[in-house]
């Protein structure tokens, strides 16, 4: 009974995080973008600085009619948002936010493999949406999504492999237990590659070619309305939370901080994750969209060689210090 | 391994793992294994029989994911996640990419059929029969002790891979490298041959090449 209660509490906690954190990132994005562009942003809903805007958006999405285009493949079309969203929920289960058994949904032996494998599945949702919509813009968006995933999956995996080599384990808490502060400069190239490749996998600007509004409307999600569209948006923001959390755990030392008492490790994890989420928003406001060929070129000619160099460096240092 | 030796080894394992196993009193894990196996088999059958091309690829996802769950139930965690990463995450995405690029109409594809279907069925049945026979013969009544130390963790897999199977592993990686180089050579040769044939249209592919 106690075990069952423990499992239920963990699942509930992860689910609450899954429901709240993406919304917090979304609200932050509203505000940060508004300030960076010297405008007000949504200011009316709820009174104080428009804090209730997201709730209003949610109500709006829930009220809209759920339209399935006549020519669409109904079942695939309706299933796609769930396929896009659920993997991020599963990944959140495995990310540790503090030391000890209590601060992670489920300790997995092959944690790094689990998170990268399951994150890759989320892209299937976009592909299904792009194909099933019976719309040429959607199909183009799906194609671009697939091309982008194929290009950026490799550097992401290689960068993560470098950390796993350094730590000698593929378990996420295990990597954090092995962490020292000098890993930061040692793995910095891998960290940047991982973060950039993750951004591309999430199709966030400047890698938002698959949903480029000026060319293909909204890519694979063009035909979606109401709650299903909201689920895709939620998947994007859940993806930001997952990517920032993973980068924190793999490269920035997770719960380790320069100071702080025992038991406050989770504060460090959350702080670093929030900082990275801020960077994600910042990049969106700052950089113009990459063209498709620039996008592919960046991955194959820059990120892949960099991550290979990082693995070589990791191997050399590992042999020297052991 | 000869059948006799396999039987002896299996007998030893059975003795070590306890004698409480039987087909008439299955445990929860065994029932789950069987059910997931049935789902996997069903998805695989739909994959090869459906007339809708993209549906076939999506059913393939179900079949491959079911296999990953089977690996998990057999405590081979590492293999399970690699299965998801490589097959569901990459191979199927590549497949869908190819389908979308060529021809993947919504609804039935009239030409999604082959005159070789009976030959394919025979080959598939023969391959499946051979595999099942080999596996059954090798393992007989071996039981995995689920309560003991996990037999398929990353550490165990890595140790057996890099201590006992280094040579096959390296040979395979060289083979894959050769395939990679071959693919690049083939694709480059194709563009070199087409460019001189169409001097009028040389501008467009040339620009494309430069942009890459």
TrEMBL record, chain A:
Gene Ontology terms for molecular function: NADH dehydrogenase activity; oxidoreductase activity, acting on NAD(P)H, quinone or similar compound as acceptor; quinone binding
Matching Pfam families: NADHdh
Domain of life: Bacteria
Organism: Streptomyces lucensis JCM 4490
Family label: Belongs to the complex I subunit 1 family.
UniProt subunit comment: NDH-1 is composed of 14 different subunits. Subunits NuoA, H, J, K, L, M, N constitute the membrane sector of the complex.
Transmembrane annotation, as ranges: 7-26, 79-98, 110-133, 154-176, 182-200, 229-253, 265-286, 298-321
One GO biological process term: aerobic respiration
Annotated localization: Cell membrane; Membrane
Protein name stated in the entry: NADH-quinone oxidoreductase subunit H
EC code: 7.1.1.-
Keyword set, alphabetical order: Cell membrane, Membrane, NAD, Quinone, Translocase, Transmembrane, Transmembrane helix, Ubiquinone
Location, primary (coarse class): membrane
Membrane topology: Multi-pass membrane protein
Role: NDH-1 shuttles electrons from NADH, via FMN and iron-sulfur (Fe-S) centers, to quinones in the respiratory chain. The immediate electron acceptor for the enzyme in this species is believed to be ubiquinone. Couples the redox reaction to proton translocation (for every two electrons transferred, four hydrogen ions are translocated across the cytoplasmic membrane), and thus conserves the redox energy in a proton gradient. This subunit may bind ubiquinone.
GO cellular component: plasma membrane
Gene label: nuoH
Catalytic activity: a quinone + NADH + 5 H(+)(in) = a quinol + NAD(+) + 4 H(+)(out)
UniProtKB/TrEMBL annotation, chain B:
GO molecular function, one term: NADH dehydrogenase (ubiquinone) activity
Keyword Membrane recorded: yes
Keywords: Cell membrane, Membrane, NAD, Quinone, Transmembrane, Transmembrane helix
Primary subcellular site in the record, as a coarse category: membrane
UniProt cross-references to InterPro entries, sorted A to Z: NADH_UbQ/plastoQ_OxRdtase_su6, Nuo/plastoQ_OxRdtase_6_NuoJ
A Pfam entry, by short name: Oxidored_q3
Highest taxon above the source species: Bacteria
Transmembrane segment boundaries: 27-46, 53-72, 78-97, 118-136, 165-186
Membrane topology field: Multi-pass membrane protein
Cellular-component GO terms for this entry: plasma membrane
Ranges in coiled-coil conformation: none
Keyword Transmembrane helix among UniProt keywords: yes
EC number(s) stated in the UniProt entry for this protein: 7.1.1.-
Compartments reported by the entry: Cell membrane
The reaction(s) this protein catalyses: a quinone + NADH + 5 H(+)(in) = a quinol + NAD(+) + 4 H(+)(out)
Function in brief: NDH-1 shuttles electrons from NADH, via FMN and iron-sulfur (Fe-S) centers, to quinones in the respiratory chain. Couples the redox reaction to proton translocation (for every two electrons transferred, four hydrogen ions are translocated across the cytoplasmic membrane), and thus conserves the redox energy in a proton gradient.
Family recorded in the similarity comment: Belongs to the complex I subunit 6 family.
Protein name (database record): NADH-quinone oxidoreductase subunit J
């Amino acid at each position: 009974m106690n075990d069952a209660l423990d499992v239920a509490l963990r699942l509930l906690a992860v689910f609450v995080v899954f429901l709240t954190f993406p919304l917090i990132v979304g609200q932050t994005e509203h505000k940060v973008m508004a300030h960076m562009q010297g405008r007000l942003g949504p200011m009316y809903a709820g009174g104080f600085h428009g804090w209730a805007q997201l709730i209003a958006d949610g109500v709006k999405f829930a009220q809209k009619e759920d339209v399935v285009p006549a020519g669409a493949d109904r079942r695939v079309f309706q299933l796609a948002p769930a396929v896009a969203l659920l993997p991020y929920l599963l990944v959140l289960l495995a990310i540790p936010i503090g030391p000890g058994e209590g601060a992670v949904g489920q300790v997995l032996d092959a944690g790094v493999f689990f998170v990268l494998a399951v994150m890759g599945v989320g892209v299937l949702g976009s592909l299904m949406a792009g194909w099933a919509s019976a719309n040429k813009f959607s199909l183009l968006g799906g194609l671009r999504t697939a091309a982008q995933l194929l290009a950026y999956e490799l550097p992401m995996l290689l960068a993560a492999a470098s950390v796993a080599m350094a730590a000698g384990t593929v378990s996420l808490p295990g990597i954090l237990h092995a962490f020292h502060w000098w890993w930061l400069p040692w793995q910095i190239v891998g960290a940047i590659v991982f973060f950039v490749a993750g951004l591309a996998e999430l199709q966030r600007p400047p890698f938002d070619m698959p949903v480029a509004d000026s060319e293909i409307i909204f890519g694979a999600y063009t035909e979606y309305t109401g709650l299903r569209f909201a689920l895709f948006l939620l998947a994007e923001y859940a993806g930001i939370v997952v990517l920032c959390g993973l980068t924190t755990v793999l490269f920035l030392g997770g719960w380790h901080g320069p100071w702080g008492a025992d038991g406050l490790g989770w504060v460090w994890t959350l702080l670093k994750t929030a900082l990275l989420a801020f960077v994600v928003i910042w990049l969106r406001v700052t950089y113009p969209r990459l063209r498709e060929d620039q996008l592919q070129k960046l991955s194959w000619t820059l990120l892949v060689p960099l991550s290979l160099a990082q693995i070589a460096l990791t191997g050399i240092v590992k042999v020297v210090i052991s | 391994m000869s059948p006799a030796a396999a039987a002896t080894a299996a007998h030893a394992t059975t003795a070590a793992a306890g004698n409480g196993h039987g087909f008439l009193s299955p445990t929860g894990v065994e029932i789950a294994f069987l059910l997931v196996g049935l789902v996997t088999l069903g998805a695989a059958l739909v994959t090869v029989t459906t007339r809708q091309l993209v549906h076939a690829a999506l059913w393939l996802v179900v079949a491959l994911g079911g296999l990953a769950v089977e690996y998990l139930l057999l405590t081979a965690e590492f293999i399970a996640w690699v299965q998801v990463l490589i097959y569901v995450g990459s191979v199927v995405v590549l497949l869908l990419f190819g389908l979308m690029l060529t021809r993947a109409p919504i609804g039935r594809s009239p030409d999604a059929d082959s005159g070789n279907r009976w030959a394919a069925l025979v080959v598939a049945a023969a391959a499946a029969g051979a595999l099942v026979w080999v596996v059954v013969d090798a393992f007989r009544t071996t039981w995995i002790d689920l309560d003991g130390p996990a037999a398929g963790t990353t550490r165990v897999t890595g140790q057996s891979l890099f201590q006992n199977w280094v040579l096959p592993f390296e040979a395979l990686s060289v083979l894959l490298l050769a395939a990679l180089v071959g693919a690049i050579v083939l694709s480059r040769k194709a563009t070199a041959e087409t460019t001189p044939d169409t001097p009028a249209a040389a501008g467009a592919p040339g620009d494309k090449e430069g942009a890459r």
